[in-house]
Design goal:
Metallo-beta-lactamase, Chain A; 27% helix; alpha/beta
């Protein structure tokens, strides 16, 4: 696992060259929040990074319920039993209705969130598309957006549902391509400094790149 350390967060990257899967450790003054949990088999590495920071883990937020994002969340919860497991209300509803494209959670959800809720310094934004209940988290200190699989940069910048030949997997798992484009249009209007995704490096705020992504996405569904 590759660890990219920044002032307010660490980016933890599983298989950075072949099949990068990102999760993020958000560092607050007195606690930390983990966004996503990578895939199964990575929990020990994630736990080691958390423990190396010497600060309690207070929250585990899942941007959506796919196997490469929930990973071994139960094993992480076992080591940090006071950490809240957080999921969106809509994603939880779909899990309860056994939506076939979602991966069942191996642990109980402690808190459900919706648009406008806060988790520490993170603001919750509902960004459906990749899944109906997908959320993004905005760090209000840095103006960074952590968007799960709403976009990808591995294989080329693309909105969820826009299949890239080199890395087609997020597109293959996307539930609603039109909703994903609408979500990215909505969130990009706020012009966040960076967009951190589930697969690939971050996307700098660049209106030309963003408009190309939106145009390409729309062309694929029209």
């Amino acid at each position: 696992m590759k660890v990219i350390r920044e002032k307010f967060h660490n980016q933890l990257v599983t298989m950075p060259r072949l099949f990068p899967i990102n999760c993020y450790l958000i560092k607050e003054q007195k606690f930390m929040t983990l966004i996503d949990c990578s895939k199964k088999g990575e929990s020990r590495k994630i736990i080691d990074v958390i423990q190396s920071e010497g600060c309690p883990l207070k929250h585990i937020i899942l941007t959506h319920a796919h196997s490469d994002h929930i990973g071994d969340v139960d094993k992480i919860k076992k080591v940090f039993p006071k950490a809240e497991i957080i999921l969106s209300e809509k994603e939880n509803q779909d899990l309860n209705h056994k939506e076939r494209k979602l991966s069942p959670l191996p642990v109980q959800v402690d808190r459900l969130v919706k648009e406008g809720d806060y988790v520490g310094s993170l603001l919750v934004k509902e960004t459906p598309g990749h899944t109906r209940g997908s959320i993004s988290l905005i760090d209000l200190r840095t103006h960074f957006a952590f968007v799960g699989d709403l976009i990808q940069t591995k294989g080329g910048n693309a909105i969820a549902g826009d299949r890239r030949f080199i890395f087609p997997f997020p597109a293959m798992a996307t539930q609603d391509k039109t909703a994903a484009i609408q979500s990215f249009e909505k969130i990009s209007k706020d012009q966040y400094a960076r967009y951190y995704c589930g697969h690939g490096s971050y996307l700098e705020n660049n209106s030309e790149k963003i408009q190309r992504m939106i145009a390409r996405g729309n062309a694929k569904i029209n």
